[in-house]
Design goal:
heterotrimer, A mainly alpha, B mainly alpha, C mainly alpha, A: mainly alpha, 3-stranded antiparallel β-sheet, two-stranded antiparallel sheet, C: mainly alpha, 7 helices
């Protein structure tokens, strides 16, 4: 039965594509059909993933085969693939429901069919990426995923920034895919088979002299998709440009494709990892985390803020993976399992809270028409439910206890600190430093999301649009409530999640059955119980007790609660006197100005000679990677291409002559060879 | 660890109540000692209790622009402080709810309180709230790595991150003070100053906009809301001191339930807290408050101390 | 005996290409192409007889029908419609072209010596002929101006490749053969349309005028 689940799921999506095309003249019916089909497909893949995780046995099958050509496209859902499938489904299902309501208002009706088709193609290809068992299926699905995403990013193709974002995304993705193709061919040339079981089972590459090259190629290829600094430049452009439901899926789901690849390769896929690899991944993860959160802090565009935060969370997951690889390299699989489990847990949690935040942001953008924090405000009164759910998402992403962000960050901390007990000196220095960096990142993320939530929802509206916003419909709120419930559930019952993750870790090559950590209903603990454990449920009564005392104090005090305007030191308080988003982040920008390198420009305009009538202040933080890395590289490439243009004579005969001359030379040279 | 929840719950409630009752006394003590330094009489030792009672009896006035977040902020702050106290070992070498978690959970709960208060501060629409929240989150963000490193040093040297277990192991091993641990204690002391909003990081008695951090956040609160915030701040301060005392100077902690051991332990704890309060007063009286953009340098010092502590302890 | 027949036909194909190079009338060139394809079909039939593979007969029949009959007819129609019947002075004049083609034939033969005899016992001369035809077809494309001559050169190359395929593999699977045939038909039709368009635009079939389109 479970054999046929993946084809069934893919069939649902294919049906969605077909229905979207057929119904393209009726936007409402088209929306419902396409996204209900997508929901069905997600549910089926969730069931598949859950069943594999529960039983611990892989499900294999063939999608189609042509024996005459010797080609077959098959799938193998092992526990790792199942984990990613479940994560993706947990996000994709509510987002599909959300899309039905969102697209009704946020998009011209003629484009609904396009989005419906591209959406289902995207989901289909992502599920195939997670489930593919051979190079061919994987690469085709990967490419299809890239194209579908680019199409969705460019949905609003009238606007130039959207087109540019889609183009940047395509260019960077192809850079990554090129590296992947090279790496796969390098691997396959050694073994002659194209199946993952052979290539990434650990044996093939273990003795290859090209191991380091292979790892770097895979890292670049998958890193582009995962948004690892310095390959992340497409992310802050592409995620905000897409419609909010697509952004939610991209941030919470497509990043996972890159992370999935990294786990496959790093967790024993190329044999036992080198310690250098683990360090490199840890370093990249730390840099991504800290830079991601710093740039998120300085952003005033709500969706760009969330996009940078995605880079940060990807970095945190990578830190877990890096710690895991270091553990594996040192010959301690229990450490390895801990690190990878921490990263995988964070991947799931990120899907939940990032999805929630993007959906909320989508509701805000749809209600007010603007993404800028400097134009929002006061929405807690007009959109109370969205505000409450967004607050929960912010608390989750800030890593506050009782929610899921805290649970996975706790696990990453454990992975980093446990590595401290290894023998190697470098590891002993680097890992606790990583822990300190993670603590800094977490605190900065809290600051960032205080800003995001407060500027959007609290105090007074800063623009007319914000003051006239209305609450989102139930169809948009219910998915957010679901994701919020997931955040709470995953945070209060981490032990159950960790139990599943132990099974996932045990299935990876190079690991055995795990007792690196254990979890029960109450909480989770790592291999040495006395070291540390976490049971959020136990602290809940204490928190409730505190809340109860606080409520009791209310009973003791005077009954009436007066409302009065806030004191403005004698002046009027209005939207202009409120603290702005830039101002909120300013102290941190000043503290970290070595990294931001802000530029500022003050210009004065005088009308009468001695009285300045207008002062203009402009402060800007430039994107460093685009300025210093990609800019010069692109210019160099274009310059070289300009030089090569000479051979493009424009004459048909010249081109044919090139072919002839080349052919003759080659034949003469090779012809003498036996 | 007992599987019977009733004694654990009673223990937790008793410890939390103890903190609640003693925290204002600590505040009063510090004010009295500061006044003594300045050759003043100062307010009564029990004045904070009167202040709290007065505030609880007053009517809270809330801004017209504020939403439910403004009301929830102090309550969540209070609840997180209370919950944090149940994770600390005080007179007995175990924390009541140590089954919940250790250092990381403690730091997380404090972060939760800060998050709630900062968010609520932005709800009034007044620029003071925004400024206070922004500064508080900055200082908090910079203090966290230092805090983590100091706590990790203590935890890793004892072999456990769970506070109860940590104290038990240190008690078993005896009290050999390692220079690395002294550095970590120094780092933790600086973080204590930051978290409790004491000079040189913040002046708890000022209401000038250029100099406020914590006070700016809570400027708009009144009545029961303000009482909760003040009380929770005092509890947090006492909790930090207890943490510092318990982690780095676990002398005299009771390992059995014998009444004499408990009495000695209680006295020892009071003495340690008194000593710490004295140190705080000394620092407050001999230093000027730092300009806000110098505070990150102080935090960097704490971070450096923490890192040095870790390096010294283990290399 | 069959061997000799095959070699004879291959030689005939080579001669036809030489003749194509050596003269300027487009009508004659098309007819030469038809003859070439006929010879190719003959090779197919001969191989079918020698190897006792009936499907080669089908292949040969298909070749003759499509390439010896349909395509020349179509191309003659294109010429009629366009009204151009002669090639103008090529980039390399005719005597020099013939000498260069001789050189290319030498290259082709040299390569064929390096290859082992065809797996089906087909003499390496056939492979040599085919390679020479490919090179000469390319040469024709480079040096002639008229689009139609270039189309014929392309078709010659295709014939050469087919010859090698017949020789080396004793016929490709029927599916592949059908596919290729339809590809060729389609390509010729598209090219015919293109020729019309070129003539409409530039009033001549001279493809060197296409560089005017360069930005």
């Amino acid at each position: 039965m479970s054999q046929s689940l993946l084809p069934l799921g893919l069939a649902f999506h294919a049906t969605g594509v077909a229905l979207a095309l057929v119904l393209r003249r009726q936007p409402a019916a088209c929306r419902w059909a396409a996204f209900l089909a997508s929901l069905g497909g997600s549910l089926v893949s969730f069931v598949l993933g859950a069943s594999v995780l529960a039983s611990g046995r892989s499900v294999r099958g063939v999608l189609f085969a042509n024996p005459a050509a010797g080609m077959s496209v098959g799938y193998a859902v092992d526990p790792l693939s199942a984990w990613f499938l479940v994560t993706f489904a947990v996000l994709a299902a509510p987002v599909a429901v959300y899309s039905v309501g969102y697209l009704a208002h946020a998009m011209p009706p003629g484009r609904t069919a396009f989005v419906g088709v591209a959406w289902n193609v995207l989901l289909m290809s992502v599920e195939t990426v997670f489930a593919a068992d051979g190079v061919l299926a994987f690469l085709v699905a990967w490419e299809l995923m890239t194209l579908a995403t680019a199409a969705l990013v460019a949905t609003d193709h009238e606007s130039r920034p959207s087109r540019r974002s889609a183009f940047l995304y395509l260019a960077m993705s192809h850079l990554g895919t090129g590296c992947l193709v090279a790496a796969f061919f390098l691997l396959a040339s050694g073994s002659g088979s194209l199946a993952f079981a052979d290539l990434l089972g650990g044996a093939t590459a273990a003795s290859s002299p090209w191991r380091d090259v292979l790892f770097v190629l895979f890292l670049v290829g998958f890193g582009v998709k995962a948004g690892v600094v310095p390959l992340h430049v497409w992310l802050p452009e592409a995620h905000p440009a897409a419609p909010s439901n697509v952004s939610a899926l991209m941030s919470g789901g497509l990043i996972n494709a890159g992370l999935y690849g990294l786990v496959r390769v790093g967790a024993g896929g190329l044999g036992r990892p080198d310690p250098g690899w683990g360090m490199g991944v840890l370093l990249l993860g730390s840099v991504s985390a800290i830079l991601g959160v710093l740039y998120a802090l300085s952003e005033n565009d709500l969706k760009r803020l969330l996009a940078f935060s995605t880079i940060e969370n990807g970095g945190i997951a990578l830190m877990g993976f890096g710690a895991g690889m270091i553990g594996l390299a040192a010959g301690r699989p229990e450490l390895g399992a801990l690190g990878f489990a921490a990263g995988l847990y964070h991947v799931l949690n990120h899907a939940a809270f990032k999805g929630l935040l993007f959906l909320g942001a989508g509701g805000v953008v749809a209600a007010t028409g603007t993404r800028k924090l400097e134009e929002l405000g006061g929405l807690a009164h007009r959109m109370p439910r969205t505000a409450g759910l967004f607050l929960l998402g912010s608390a989750a992403i800030a890593g506050l206890p009782l929610l899921n962000g805290f649970a996975s960050e706790w696990l990453v901390f454990q992975a980093l600190l446990r590595g401290f007990f290894s023998a190697e000196r470098l590891t002993r220095i680097v890992l606790p430093l990583g822990g300190a960096l993670l603590a800094l990142t977490s605190a900065l993320a809290a600051a960032c999301f205080v800003k995001a939530f407060a500027m959007t929802f609290l105090a007074r509206p800063r623009s007319r649009a914000a003051s006239e916003a209305t609450e989102s419909k139930a169809l948009l709120l219910a998915p957010q409530a679901f994701l919020a419930a997931a955040c709470v559930g995953l945070g209060l019952f981490p032990g159950l999640v960790v139990r599943v993750l132990a099974g996932v870790a045990a299935s990876l090559p190079g690991f055995g059955p795990q007792d690196a950590f254990s979890g029960g209903l109450a909480g989770m603990t790592i291999g040495i119980p006395a070291f540390d454990h976490l049971s959020p449920l136990v602290i809940v009564p204490a928190v409730l007790f505190g809340l109860g005392l606080a409520a009791a104090s209310g009973l003791v005090s005077a009954r009436a609660r007066r409302r009065a305007p806030a004191w403005g030191c004698g002046g009027e308080l209005s939207a202009e006197t409120e603290y702005t988003a830039t101002a909120f982040a300013k102290p941190l920008v000043m503290v970290f100005r070595g990294i931001y390198r802000p530029t500022r420009e003050v210009s004065r305009f005088e009308s009468v000679r001695y009285f300045t009538s207008e002062v203009r202040y402009r402060s800007q933080i430039d994107a460093p990677f685009e300025l210093h890395v990609y800019g010069p590289a692109t210019r160099a490439v274009l310059a070289a291409a300009g030089q090569l243009r000479v051979i493009q004579a424009g004459s048909l005969h010249a081109y044919l002559a090139y072919v002839l001359v080349l052919g003759v030379i080659l034949l003469w040279w090779l012809g003498g060879l036996p | 660890m007992t599987t019977n929840p009733l004694p654990v719950a009673l223990f937790a409630v008793a410890q939390a109540t103890g903190f609640l009752l003693l925290a204002p006394l600590l505040r009063g003590l510090i004010k009295k000692m500061k006044a003594a330094f300045q050759l003043r009489q100062g307010p009564r030792l029990l004045q904070p209790y009167s202040d709290l009672a007065k505030l609880l009896g007053k009517e809270p006035v809330r801004s017209t622009t504020a939403s439910w977040v403004f009301v929830a902020g102090p309550r969540v702050y209070f609840a997180s402080a209370i919950a944090a106290t149940t994770l600390l070992p005080t007179i007995f070498a175990a924390a009541p709810l140590e089954a919940a978690g250790g250092i990381l959970l403690l730091v997380g709960l404090l972060a939760l309180g800060r998050f709630a208060l900062a968010t609520a501060a932005l709800d009034t629409g007044s620029p003071f709230g925004g400024m206070g929240a922004s500064r508080e989150m900055t200082v908090g963000a910079l203090a966290e790595p230092a805090l983590m490193l100091a706590l990790f040093t203590a935890g890793l040297s004892a072999g456990s991150l769970n506070l109860g277990e940590l104290v038990r192991r240190t008690a078993e091993r005896g009290t050999s003070i390692h220079p690395g641990e002294i550095l970590a204690a120094a780092a933790l002391f600086i973080v204590l100053l930051a978290e409790a909003g004491r000079v040189p990081v913040d002046n708890p008695a000022t209401h000038l906009e250029l100099t406020m951090i914590h006070e700016a956040m809570v400027l708009e609160y009144s009545g029961a809301d303000l009482a909760l915030v003040e009380w929770a701040s005092a509890v947090k301060e006492l909790a930090f001191m207890t943490l510092l005392a318990g982690l780095f100077f676990p002398i005299g902690v009771a390992t059995s339930l014998a009444p004499e051991a408990l009495a000695i332990s209680a006295l020892a704890l009071l003495a340690k807290v008194f000593a710490l309060a004295l140190m705080v007063v000394l620092v407050e009286s001999t230093n000027a408050k730092l300009r806000f953009f110098r505070v990150p340098e102080l935090m960097a010092v704490a971070l450096g101390l923490g890192f040095l502590a870790l390096a010294m302890r283990f290399f | 005996m069959i061997q000799d027949l095959v070699i004879l036909c291959a030689a005939g194909m080579l001669v036809s290409v030489y003749l194509m190079v050596g003269q300027k009338s487009l009508v004659v060139a098309i007819r030469l192409y038809g003859v070439q394809s006929l010879l190719l079909g003959a090779v197919g039939i001969a191989m079918g007889l020698a190897e006792h593979r009936p499907h080669l007969y089908v292949t040969a029949a298909l070749t003759i029908a499509l390439k010896a009959v349909v395509i020349p007819w179509f191309l003659l129609r294109v010429i009629d419609r366009v009204g151009i019947r002669r090639e103008i002075e090529p980039f390399v004049n005719v005597p020099a072209s013939l000498l260069l083609c001789l050189g290319l034939t030498v290259v082709g033969y040299r390569v064929s010596l390096g290859m082992a005899g065809g797996s089906q016992g087909v003499p390496h001369q056939v492979v040599g002929v085919a390679l020479s035809m490919v090179l000469m077809g390319l040469f024709l494309m480079v040096t002639r101006r008229k689009a139609l001559t270039q189309i014929l050169a392309l078709l010659t190359i295709e014939n050469a490749v087919f010859l090698v395929a017949l020789g080396a593999t004793a016929g490709m699977p029927l599916v592949v053969e059908l596919g290729i045939s339809f590809d060729v038909i389609l390509a010729v039709m598209v090219l015919g349309v293109l020729v019309n368009r070129i003539v409409d635009r530039f009033e001549s079939m001279d493809t060197s005028r296409l560089s005017n389109l360069r930005g």
